[in-house]
Every structure is written in C-alpha cells, then in structure tokens.
Amino acid sequence: MAKDELNQKIATIASQTNGDYGAEQIKVLKDLEAVRMRPGMYIGGTGIDGLMHLIWEIVDNSVDEHLAGTCTEIDVVMHEDSRVTVTDNGRGIPVDIHPEEKVNTLELVMTKLHAGGKFDTGGYKVSGGLHGVGASVVNALSEFCEVEVCWKDGKKYLQRFERGKKASELKVVGTCNKTGTITTFLPDKEIFGEIKYDFSKLTHRLREQAYLNPGLQIKLDNRIANIQKVFKAEGGIGAYVKDLNEGRKVIHEDVVYFKETSDVLIEVAMQWTEDYDENIYSFANNINTKEGGTHLQGFKTALTRVLNEYGRDKKIITKDEENLEGKDVREGLMAIISVKMRNPQFEGQTKTKLGNPDMQERVSTAVREQLQLFLNNNTGMARVILEKAAQAAQARIAAKKAKQLVRRKGLLAFSTLPGKLADCSEKEAAKCELYIVEGDSAGGSAKQGRNRQFQAILPLRGKVLNVEKAALSKLLDNKELNAFITALGTNIREEFNLENLRYHKVILMADADVDGAHIRTLLLTFLFRNLKQLIENGHIYIAKPPLYQLKKGKNVQYLFSDQELNEHRKGKGDGFEVKRYKGLGEMNPEELWETTMNPEKRILKRVHIEDALEAEELFTTLMGQDVAARRDFIMENADMITNLDI
C-alpha cells in the first residue's frame, strides 16, 4: 500500500468522526495493515532509527537463538541495493503445520502479530523478544522479505513475502547438513523514503552483542562501504569495560568482575579511573536499557552500601566522617551490568527501561554478596577504590561548606570575559545565544550581521585542541578552549555549575565542508568530555550554513549540499549563477544573517545523546589513537561525511 494511499485512508477515518459515531465508524485493521498504517508504534518512527530497528529485530532473533544455546555464528550482509541478509546457525524457524492455526509455522511467524516462541512456551528460556512482533513487523515494512530455513529434517525451505503478505508458498529448494535461518529483506521506500543506513550505529550494536555474549561470533559484510569485520569477545563484559577505558588513567589494572547464576544470570564488570564522571551501562537480555530500571537501581544501592560498610570496617572511613554518597563511590567508575532472565518487563516495544520489581532486590543481593567477597579477597585494590571514593566525598563536603576546590584550587579561576568575545546586551541567559565561529574573517561577518541584543559571537582561531589525546594540563593551557569555557561561565568537569551558564543556546557554526566537520567534531569532543551536562540539558546546537548560492536575476536561493544542487538542476535546469562558498568568511554580514543566524530562517540542529555507550565509543574511535578503527569509520560513513548530514 503506497504512503499516499495510507494517508488517504487515515484522512477518511478521521473525517468520519465529524459526523455520526456508530458501529460503521469502527475500523478493524487486519493482519499487518496496522503496522503499515502506524509504523511508529512498533519501530519508533520511519526515520533512520526506525530503519535500523528493522535490522535489530532480525539480529536480536538470532541472538536469542544463541541464548538458547543453539547458535554460535551470525552473519550480517549489507547489499549494494540496500537489501539486508541475516544468517544464523540456530535451530531454524519451524516449518511444520501449526496445530491451531493450520498454516506452516514460518508463515505464521512472518505474517501474524504476537506469534512467536517467546511467550513462556518452552521455546526460549531467555530472550530479548517478548511480543512476537519482531519478524512480522520487519516483513510488514519491507518491499519483500525472503526466509530460507535449514530445518532438522535436512531440507532447505524458502518462502517469500511482499509488504507483509504471502507472495509464494513454502517450498523445498535443497538440502542442508546443519540448521539455521537466512532472512533477506528490503525496507519499503513507500514507508521510509530514501534507504540510508547508519553504519556507525550498526557496527556499535554488533560489537556490543559480541561483548554481551562470549563465544558468539558476528560477521559484518558491508558491501556498500566495502568493509568486512568480525566481532568476537571471549572476555565478555569485563573486556568491554577494559576497552572502554582505553586511553583513560585507571586506578587499578584488573577489572572487578563477578557473576551469579541461578534462574537469573547477573553479571557485573567495573573499573575505576582518575576521571570524575561516571559511566554505567545496563542491559537486560542483551537489550541496552538506556533509561536504566530496577536492575540498575539495585546495583547502585548495593554498591554504595557495601563500600560504606567495608570502608568503616577497615577504618578507611572514620567514625567522625559522613557516609559516602552514591555519587562519591561512582566517581570515575566505568561499569556494565547485564542480567538475563525469563519474562523481562520492558517499558514498550523499544525496551529502554526494565520494570521487573523483583530485580532490584535480586541484583542488590547478588552485588552485596559478590562485591563483599571480592573486596575481602583483593584488599589492595579495595583500598585504592575506597580512597578514591573518600577523596570524592571530601571534595563534595568541602565544596558544600566552603565553595572552594579541594583537589585543584583555582583550576579555572577567570575573573573577566575573554577580549575576543562580542557579548550581547541581554542579561537573561534563557534569551541569549552564543555563536562559536572558526576564524577571524567569519567572526567579523558574524559580529556585523548578528542581532546584538541577544546574540554573542566568540571567534576561535584554527582547529582547537583534540582533548581526546591531551592531558588536562594541556587543555587548561589552550587559549582558545579557555576563552570558550570562560564565555560559558559554567566551569568544567567536577566544578561544572549549570546555573552559571550565560547563554542557553550555544551554537557551533563552522564551514559547510570537511574541514568544518572536523572543527565541529573537535568542539563536540571537548564538550562531551568536559561539559556533557550542556549536551544532556539541550543547550548545544549546530548551525547549518549553505554550501551554494544560486542567482537568476533578482531571485536568490541557497542550497545546503551537493545533493540539493543536483536535484535543483534536474528540476529547474541551468541558467542560474552558482556560487560555492569555500567558507563562512566568504559570506557578507547580510548573507550570514539571512541564511544562518536569523531565527526565522536558519536551520539549527540540537545535539543530543541518544545512546551514551555508542557516543562513548564514537568519540574514542574518531579522536583516539586507533588509526585503523578511524579509517574504517570514515570509509563506512563517507556518504554522510561528504553530504555533511549533521
């Protein structure tokens, strides 16, 4: 069903409610029609995140086979024509006739909502899939979907579906000496428009699954970018924590790792660093619970309690000192908590938060017992961890009482605003904007073109320091970054104070080319590592300046990418005078205001952190020491970089 047809059907239903409301106004959507009419209910939307969600649903089904103990290999192929193929060596989707529905089980799974083996029927003890909608939703939102099954009878079966409906009967197409499932699907352009995958997100998710499932090998054959990768992590989440801390100064070399196995598997891996922020990531049945849940609450409660008890028992915390607070013991902590259980209760199909009430106490009990045992058996490491937490508590108490630093007095004690800052006249921070502009030339145009009442301009010279590779002392010696910090007014890291923010919109404005993208990345790295709260609270924006100016007589038009220029030429032909801006400095103040700074016409994109763990890996890849990983990322995402789709 075409998108226009779907919209017409929605409009028709809506218009009927304006008249009499009776039985004839009740619409029953059959089979997968509801999915095609309301895809956002099942995959969160029809943008790039929804598109990637289709891949997750099929991959997660294969991972569930691994959790059942029947799958050791998963292959993911991204074809040049946008097809996706996922292969596993699990048991294979059953192909025999379902006793109640009287159709082959493969067809039932692919065409009916809430048909699956994960409803406590004995098919899976542990799984990420809960609702029986994964494969059928992918099928409904695909132009076509073909499923090959190597089943236990030694035969290979094939069935094809188109837009959720059966397009062929199940047929035998060969023989095989092992079991498994091969699913190939092409997302429907009628639903998603342009099919454009996020390869960075794909790589992160597959690597993540390999860490969470030791012994599982996942191969990625990205034929679009001509990149092949193999993910396998025998070290599990302990290795994950160690890899995430690469480049950080850790206060103990060995990762604190323990697990408890009963009817619920609880795994915890921890390592403290000299940093001040905490990074704790939680998973339930391999699903990244980005919003936490009861398992994370149980972990935090037990961690604080155990370290307080151990600290007092070993006299690291004296009787005159206050108890450590949660943020004290979690300062500098990198941790992963993973639980695998029957019948997890997630909030919604997107599964971002675990809600099982009993898991808080179960995780808390397990962490208390296992962490106490670990600390008693590793007294040297335990003392280092407690001293780190005690130092954090001392700094917190001192800051509260005296409002002064304990560890680095006068870290950023600036009393005056930087001279290069052209401030605005408005004093209410909520109404103020700060533009960060690269170069004196662009800064001059911005200062002349701005609205002086509420827009401030801070020009930075050249590419700022890559803080991913630099020590804190070098950061503090950098004049450009110091000017940025001073203009914001918040200070950084543990001395950060959001209440002192002088501008509620901080806008990064760089050239619309690869150099501009590099400058934005350097600035975002600095913000993510030192002022993450600004991103989390929605204060950071990226301006999108035009790449081209088109003139034809008095008609002036601005385009923002090569793709827009090509589409314009196809639609309106030649005859336009085309000017390509090499940088913001080439734009006069009026052009800069009209295209990039005028609130009524400009394009601003707010920076947000959708997946903290993915963001952590992304900045490490882009700005860290691993040249090969950075090269692969650039090759995989060259299309996005070229089009500057920021």
Which architecture of the largest domain does the CATH hierarchy give at level 2?
2-Layer Sandwich
Number of distinct helices: 23
Helix content: 25-40%
Query: What would CATH call the class of the largest domain?
Result: Alpha Beta
Q: Which of globular, elongated, flat, extended, rod-shaped describes the shape? A: flat
Oligomer: single chain
Predict the CATH topology of the largest domain.
Ribosomal Protein S5, domain 2
Structural class, please? alpha+beta
Low-pLDDT parts are: 402-414, 641-646
Overall tally of domains: 4
Amino- and carboxy-terminal Cα gap: 32 Å
Strand content: 15-25%
- Report the C-alpha radius of gyration, rounded: 28 Å
Detailed description of the structure:
The model is unreliable at 402-414 and 641-646 (pLDDT under 50). Strand 12 (279-284) and strand 13 (287-288) form a beta hairpin. With 646 residues, the protein is an alpha+beta fold. It is 39% helix and 19% strand. The chain is flat and about 80 Å long. The chain folds into 4 domains: 40-197, Histidine kinase-like ATPase, C-terminal domain (Heat Shock Protein 90, 2-Layer Sandwich), CATH 3.30.565.10; 236-402, 2-Layer Sandwich (Ribosomal Protein S5, domain 2); 429-546 and 581-609, Rossmann fold (3-Layer(aba) Sandwich); 548-559 and 562-580. Helix 8 (199-212) packs across helix 9 (236-244) and helix 10 runs parallel beside helix 12 (357-377). Strands 1, 2, 3, 4, 5, 6, 7, 8 and 9 form a 9-stranded mixed β-sheet that branches. It has 23 helices and 22 strands.
